[in-house]
Design brief:
There is one protein chain. The chain is mainly alpha-helical and 499 residues long. The chain has two domains: 199 residues, MFS general substrate transporter like domains (Growth Hormone, Chain: A); 231 residues, Up-down Bundle (Growth Hormone, Chain: A), CATH 1.20.1250. It has 19 helices and four strands. It has a four-stranded antiparallel sheet with strand order 1-2-4-3, covered by helices on one side. The radius of gyration is 23 Å and the shape is globular.
């Protein structure tokens, strides 16, 4: 009788997916088990993972056909980098808005509207001619706004669906679709361009897949999704949520303003340092994702492996290879990171930030070696040179991917539940603003500056991009340092969030 009464007092929008109260304990806490219909919960998670796959497929269509787009619109390296920067700037500026809305309003409606919007704009992008390159830039920015709603809210729904042990596993699966979607974006773009001879067709597949995601979202995700406030504290202990008990008649939802949430998060040093570490990671990932296929092409031209592309449609083999590397290293990296975190947490409470720091240092070293290998002439054959490049770039991406799920899990256990959407939104804002929003443009601008001081040639076209890339190795080292700083505060901040 007491259990039924407690559940009925909660606002409908704050109740979990089919969660029921199992028992009432003496003292200031009661436990609520998350025992919704198991099949439905996993179907909802699958739909969210599918949406995440589509977002990152669309995200990396442009880098997959970058050489064709650069030639079609006659863009310099700096302008080409700006294309991705516009996309990410709009994405990150919209993220805090959707974070605020996601903590307060119906998340299903927000997700559905976001999918519909970016799918429609992506389809419209495929009909832009070379005379309207500014509209092409604008359309990519609008796509970023639509995607921000999904990336901000979807992880919090998954966090609500599963307790701590399963939550890490499901978040790992969710974030596996970042590299998988990214790699498929390269492959889709290159494949459709090769098949049709027109890169515009690359933008006409993901909108159709987005329509399917929207239908599944409408059919499977409940209209009322849990928004845990102070009354639903997401301390997942042995498969339960501990809920703060309150006296009858006391208002149960502690409302705070967005500014108050931001100030509170700014005092959370684990959140601050891990967000800066993620920012360094985003800087490197954004630069690599945008420029590596073009860098490989220029390296092959200089070494005589391929001839310069002079026709309208260029070979997309580098995008196909890099797409495959991204998928393979992404899956392996995310799984390895989650498994390492699961095992090492048992012996070290600081395992998560230490794993992230180590992986960043190793990734920076691998990327630096790849850049040095790219210009060497001591390798016996051109194919061996290409193989070494791919191997070290693959290892660099592998150790970057280790951090995806681990960083998000850090946020979810050092930040109180009612601030999680806001925290994710702020992390997206900071990591993209100082990370991959600027890195593609910065790399391209440095490359332009180097080329401007030297006679135009394929050799300097390659060297300029190579010298620009060295910046990524140094930023990776800084990222490792930020995660080390996180380890100094994580135990204290976790305990405070649990309280």
């Amino acid at each position: 009788h007491e259990n039924t009464g407690l559940q009925s007092q909660l606002p409908l929008e704050e109740q979990n997916y089919g969660a029921t109260v199992t028992h009432m304990r003496q003292g200031p806490f009661v436990s609520v088990a998350r025992k919704g219909p198991a099949k439905r919960v996993y179907l909802i998670a699958a739909v969210l993972c599918y949406g995440n796959l589509l977002i990152f497929m669309d995200w990396f269509i442009v880098p997959g056909i970058l050489l064709d787009i650069q030639k079609y619109f006659e863009l310099s390296d700096g302008d080409t980098g700006l294309l991705q920067t516009v996309f990410i700037l709009c994405y990150m500026l919209a993220a805090p808005i959707f974070g605020y809305l996601g903590d307060r309003y119906n998340r299903k409606i927000i997700l559905g509207a976001g999918i519909f919007f970016w799918s429609g704009v992506t389809l419209g992008t495929s009909f832009i001619s070379e005379l309207y390159y500014r509209i092409f830039f604008l359309s990519r920015g609008l796509v970023g706004i639509g995607m921000a709603s999904y990336s901000t809210i979807a992880p919090t729904i998954i966090a609500d669906l599963f307790e701590e042990g399963k939550r890490t596993t499901m978040l790992s699966i969710f974030y596996i679709f970042i590299p998988v979607g990214s790699g498929l974006g390269y492959i889709l773009a290159a494949g459709m361009t090769d098949i049709t001879g027109d890169w515009h067709w690359a933008f006409r597949i993901t909108p159709c897949m987005g329509g399917l995601a929207l239908v599944l979202l409408i059919l499977l995700v409940p209209h009322r999704t849990q928004r845990r406030t102070a009354v639903h504290r997401a301390l997942s202990i042995s498969g339960t949520i501990r809920v703060a008990a309150e006296k009858p008649g006391v208002h149960r939802t502690a409302k705070t303003t967005w500014c108050q949430d931001v100030v509170s998060l700014a005092k959370n040093w684990s959140f601050v340092w891990s967000s800066l570490g993620l920012t360094a990671m985003a800087f490197v990932t954004g630069a690599l994702g945008m420029w590596v296929p073009l860098f490989l092409y220029r390296a092959q031209v200089v070494q005589g492996i391929v001839s310069p592309c002079l026709q309208e449609s260029c070979s997309s083999s580098n995008s196909l290879i890099f797409g495959g590397i991204t998928i393979g290293t992404g899956i392996l990296g995310v799984i390895a990171g989650a498994e390492a975190a699961r095992r090492l947490r048992k012996i070290n409470n600081k395992a998560d930030p230490l794993i992230c720091a180590t992986s960043m240092f190793i990734s920076a070293l691998c990327l630096y070696i790849a850049l040095m290998v790219a210009q060497t002439n001591i390798l016996s054959t051109f194919s061996l040179l290409s193989s070494f490049l791919h191997i070290f770039i693959a290892f660099g991406e592998l150790f970057l991917s280790v951090n995806w799920a681990v960083v998000t899990d850090i946020l979810l256990y050092v930040v109180t539940p009612r601030r999680q959407s806001t925290a994710i939104a702020l992390q997206i804002l900071v990591s993209h603003l100082l990370g991959d929003a600027g890195s593609p443009y910065l790399i391209g601008t440095i490359s332009n500056a180097i080329q401007a001081k030297n006679a135009p040639s394929f050799q300097w076209s390659f060297w300029s991009l190579q010298y620009s890339f060295i910046l990524c190795a140094f930023v990776g080292v800084f990222g490792g340092g930020f995660f080390l700083l996180t380890s100094f505060y994580i135990e204290e901040d976790r305990k405070e969030a649990e309280q």
